Amino acid sequence: MRIEQPALLARATCHRSIASLPAALLTLLVYLLHQDFWFWRTARPLVFGFLPIGLFYHAAYTLAVSLLLWMIVRRHWPSHLEDPRAGRSE
After folding, report:
1. 43: which of 6, 27, 52, 63 fits an S-S bond (Cβ 3.0–4.6 Å)?
2. How far is residue 27's CA from residue 10's CA, in Å, rounded to a whole number?
3. How far, in Å, CA of 51 to CA of 46, rounded?
């Protein structure tokens, strides 16, 4: 069992938090874009000739959020949760 030095652990924690800052800012931006007050008063124009613009916006928004969450999980998932040896004492 390896015990890390406190300074190394603090530096690694700081690096992880700085590395996740763009993802946090992008999440905040996507959250703000969810409040689509600009399409509230009209259903026009129709996208593809039949789909109201607000409904199309939410469909596109849902796809964008799905991709964002996939990226966040893929890049920022804590790997120590997946290590099967982490819970065992040796």
Report:
1. 52
2. 25
3. 5
Q: Locate tokens 């946090």: which residue?
A: 24
**CB-hemisphere CA count at 13 Å for 29?**
8
> Tens digit of pLDDT for each residue in 1-39?
555 555 554 555 555 566 778 888 998 999 988 887 887
Radius of gyration in angstroms for the set of CA atoms belonging to the chain, rounded to a whole number: 21
d(CA 86, CA 8) in angstroms, rounded, equals 19
Q: How far apart are CA 85 and CA 7, in angstroms?
A: 24
What are the structure tokens assigned to 64, written together?
A: 């964008």
Strand partners for 47? 51
